[in-house]
Amino acid sequence: MADSYSSGSLGYNGSSPTWNVTSSGPWLLAFMLAAIILVTVCGNLLLIALVFAHRSLRCTSNCFLVSLFLSDLMVALVVMPPAMLNVLCGAWVLWPAFCPIWLCFDVMCCSASILNLCVISLDRYLFIISPLRYKQRMTPPRALLLVGAAWGLAALASFLPIEMKWHSLGHWSRQPAVPGPNEANISAYVDTLYPNSYFQLSPSGGLSFQCRLRVTLPFALVASVLTFFLPSIAICFTYCRILLAARRQAKRVAALSHPPYPHPSLGEPSRPPSSGAVGGLPQQDQDDCSQQEPQGSQNVPPSVNSERRLAHRHGRRALKASLTLGVLLGLFFSTWLPFFITNMAQAVCECVPLALFDAITWLGYCNSTMNPIIYPLFMRDFKRALGKLLPC
């Protein structure tokens, strides 16, 4: 995320790392990183276009998904390409003044993606605990307010502290490493072109600089708590409540399949399940945009068979909800938790190897690649829209 490495050189440091074009390794790495960027851009653009093109997808709940896809798209368009140059070239080959701007967008876009995931979990939680009052509670203005709050917090956690240089707090100082009689003049020029708040000398020596957000431990702790750990707690809480609701639903509908009392005869009136709900949950999928599936079929009498079919259908939905939440939480923590742990460790000792930190940073970026794949995979309306667009 923000603590990505990149280096820039004034042009006369022969020991700075360069890309060996005769080796197959850099080309393979370039292909992999370019593929990640391409998939992220195409996936998020496609889903944003689907929401605006299909009326069935234009609902309040999907407003949060559009915000998520937009933040992931910005990660792919603004953050990933310079990060790819960092890895491949080993030098900050772009304009030096662009370094702090890129760092700000890096923090903002990645934080917005995480906070949008938190807002989505909150939206699903509100729908689960009170499905009948959901539309009255989650109105379009309130949805836009939540989206704006997510982006506002992400911007405050990025542009304000980085531009104000709160991340360094004056603790970082550059060691003089410029030899020769003109050392003072060159050092003054270097400090102007490559301020030590955003650049540091490359370990290779000479005048090779890395564009890196070197943060102090207090800043790393505060930023990590605001943009990751607190949202993670909220995501875990809401998804666990959703999972418990799904399990309660499965237990209640199981009673329909195996009642503890004799089933009434066909001639006696039996009490059907409440309309549109089983176990306090609506029969439609969690996404309020989804249309309800056809209930029942021809030649099915209102007897034990129909209740067993109902129980089987909702049992599968409860299982699907459990698997879905497990996949979402697993992917979220497996991609972002290593970065924030490593970022805090780096603030303490600066002992994380360059290649390892690059790999962990790109693992976090890949969350923006997987979001447009995982979330619509479990939503019927998105699958229907994709099926119409891609009939194969």
TrEMBL record:
Q: How does it sit in the membrane?
A: Multi-pass membrane protein
SUPFAM superfamilies given in the database record: Family A G protein-coupled receptor-like (SSF81321)
Gene Ontology cellular-component terms for this entry are: plasma membrane
Where does the record place the region Disordered?
261-307
Q: Where in the cell is it found?
A: Cell membrane
Annotated G-protein coupled receptors family 1 profile domain ranges read 43-375
- Name the Gene Ontology molecular function terms of this record: G protein-coupled serotonin receptor activity
Q: Does Membrane count among this protein's keywords?
A: yes
Keywords, in A-Z order: Cell membrane, G-protein coupled receptor, Membrane, Receptor, Transducer, Transmembrane, Transmembrane helix
InterPro entries reported in the protein's UniProt record? 5HT6_rcpt, GPCR_Rhodpsn, GPCR_Rhodpsn_7TM
**SMART domains, per the entry:** 7TM_GPCR_Srsx
Q: Which GO terms describe its biological process?
A: adenylate cyclase-activating adrenergic receptor signaling pathway; positive regulation of MAPK cascade
Q: Does the keyword Membrane apply?
A: yes
Residues passing through the membrane, by range:
27-52, 64-94, 100-122, 143-162, 219-244, 318-339, 359-378
What's this protein's family per the entry?
Answer: Belongs to the G-protein coupled receptor 1 family.
Protein name stated in the entry: (spotted green pufferfish) hypothetical protein
Question: What organism, scientifically named, is this protein from?
Answer: Tetraodon nigroviridis (Spotted green pufferfish)
